[in-house]
Amino acid sequence: MDKREKAHCLVLFYPIQGHINPMLQFSKRLQHKGLKVTLVTTHSVHKAMHGGAGEQSPSSFFSIALETISDGFDEEGGSAKPESIQAYWDRFREIGSQTLAELIDKLSVSGHPADCIVYDQILPWALDVAKRVGIAGAAFFTVSCAVTNIYSFVHKGRLKLPLNPDSEILLPGLPPLQPSDTPSFIYVPESYPAFLKLSVDLFSNLDKADWVFCNTFYELEQEVVDCMIKFWPLRTIGPTIPSMYMDKRYEDNKEYGLSLLKPNSDGCLKWLNAKPTGSVAYISFGSVAGLGEEQMEELGLGLRRSKSYFLWVVRASESAKLPKGFAEETSEKGLVVSWCPQLEILAHEAVGCFVTHCGWNSTLEAFAKT
Length: 370
Known about the structure:
CATH superfamily of the largest domain: Glycogen Phosphorylase B
InterPro entries: Glyco_transf_N, UDP_glucos_trans
GO molecular function: quercetin 3-O-glucosyltransferase activity; quercetin 7-O-glucosyltransferase activity
Structural class: alpha/beta
Keywords: Glycosyltransferase, Transferase
Family: Belongs to the UDP-glycosyltransferase family.
Organism: Prunus avium (Cherry)
């Protein structure tokens, strides 16, 4: 990796918006440093992707090469079709490993052979492929070091499940925790068995990684980073947020640039421009988390009764849970949209409050706001 002008890095990401954003931003930074970067995703996701400025070719939009591999469900639309989440992951591991090796073999005779794979934390089989073909492998953790460390202790057996609801949890590098302070996959393991297995299994081969990248910064999680670095070649490389919201070193780096959901950019910003400074509550629970109908009703009731303006992101898949007639009844002070450009929204002077599920990307983006 010292010969940066010759190094070719494959960046393999899983198609969840919260994973795409930091890994894409990291890829842009690597390219600015002179490395050749190739993004790798699945065939089905490539069909669904569009850039932040509208439908267009991702490869031309980013000026970063793009390659695809198979998850075994190319025509069916990825993870939406298998009989279970576990069935999808098993098939993805089998077919993904095979087609990733084929991609590396193809690149080896192209004049730009791959030197390294940076893989999404939830695709640990990519590291096995890297080692089998003799190139470097780096895990990329899109969550905080604190959460990563908790999962690692479950994997090691030092944190036994199910948790004792009456016992405090004491783990190196972390403050004393109550069971409810832990990730929901751990606190209620029977509710998310496939995701718990996925989150724990990623440590099965991590000792073989040449690097472990974490989307955080040392000053934010000093104690837990100092703990983790004793076991893995950890590097904090975050926050992976577009440069214009952070250090402003790259004027062309104003957005992540790729959204699986179509943002209502013009409508949101036009609406915010007409609101006083600090007067708007922005509500968004990310691209995956879902609320129950009762929760949506209670939140809607609170917003209806509040005296504040609000901008509420309700994904199309969640819209049926909205109280009947809510958007129309609150249109004088509220705006409900299916998706929006969150960085621009948080940076807008009219936004004074952020109601969030506290996903790690949203947390880091809120830091950038301040």
